[in-house]
Amino acid sequence: MGIYTRTGDEGQTSVIGGRVIKDDDRVEAYGTIDELNCFVGQAISLIDSANGEFEDLREHLLEVQQELFDCGSDLAFVRISETKYKVRDEMVTRLEQWIDQYDAENPKVERFIIPGGSQLSSALHVCRTVCRRAERRTVTLGQHTDINPSVRRYLNRLSDYFFVVARTANARQQVADIEYVRSKKVFRRKE
């Protein structure tokens, strides 16, 4: 199988069920999800598997990569039956469980956080922002065509997950988060 096909040379690409221009909202949405998946892979590469400090996070991020492919697949279909969707709300519920688990490790925060700290935390913050863009592209697509609404919910929750695990990466490495000093107190812990 050859890598190049020349079928996209005129600015079109294939989606499942047809062909569209390469900057079609559908391609923008699943293309941004693909970009996010690359950044997740980069974050995984920063985890030192030798000391095991982030083995739980590594396993979760590897699962997220699989699920991001599922998200892209669900968005790549021009027409699909709801029974064929791969992304389900159970995946969103599981992300919420992971968020709660990791957030329990984090120090209390009251203000917005400036992205940064450790290399791993910084990489996870990049994942968070690219995830938000993927979500925006998915919302745009959903304004004029039917999409799997679970993908939108998954991406929304996934960006929250990245925020929390970026903080956990700093906490486990004993690197303080940098609060945005001009921010009012905006976060309150659930009691």
From TrEMBL:
<dbReference type="GO" id="GO:0005524">
    <property type="term" value="F:ATP binding"/>
</dbReference>
<comment type="similarity">
    <text>Belongs to the Cob(I)alamin adenosyltransferase family.</text>
</comment>
<comment type="pathway">
    <text>Cofactor biosynthesis; adenosylcobalamin biosynthesis; adenosylcobalamin from cob(II)yrinate a,c-diamide: step 2/7.</text>
</comment>
<dbReference type="GO" id="GO:0008817">
    <property type="term" value="F:corrinoid adenosyltransferase activity"/>
</dbReference>
<dbReference type="InterPro" id="IPR016030">
    <property type="entry name" value="CblAdoTrfase-like"/>
</dbReference>
<comment type="subunit">
    <text>Homotrimer.</text>
</comment>
<keyword id="KW-0547">Nucleotide-binding</keyword>
<dbReference type="InterPro" id="IPR036451">
    <property type="entry name" value="CblAdoTrfase-like_sf"/>
</dbReference>
<dbReference type="Pfam" id="PF01923">
    <property type="entry name" value="Cob_adeno_trans"/>
</dbReference>
<keyword id="KW-0169">Cobalamin biosynthesis</keyword>
<keyword id="KW-0808">Transferase</keyword>
<dbReference type="GO" id="GO:0009236">
    <property type="term" value="P:cobalamin biosynthetic process"/>
</dbReference>
<protein>
    <recommendedName>
        <fullName>Corrinoid adenosyltransferase</fullName>
        <ecNumber>2.5.1.17</ecNumber>
    </recommendedName>
</protein>
<keyword id="KW-0067">ATP-binding</keyword>
<dbReference type="InterPro" id="IPR029499">
    <property type="entry name" value="PduO-typ"/>
</dbReference>
<feature type="domain" description="Cobalamin adenosyltransferase-like">
    <location>
        <begin position="3"/>
        <end position="169"/>
    </location>
</feature>
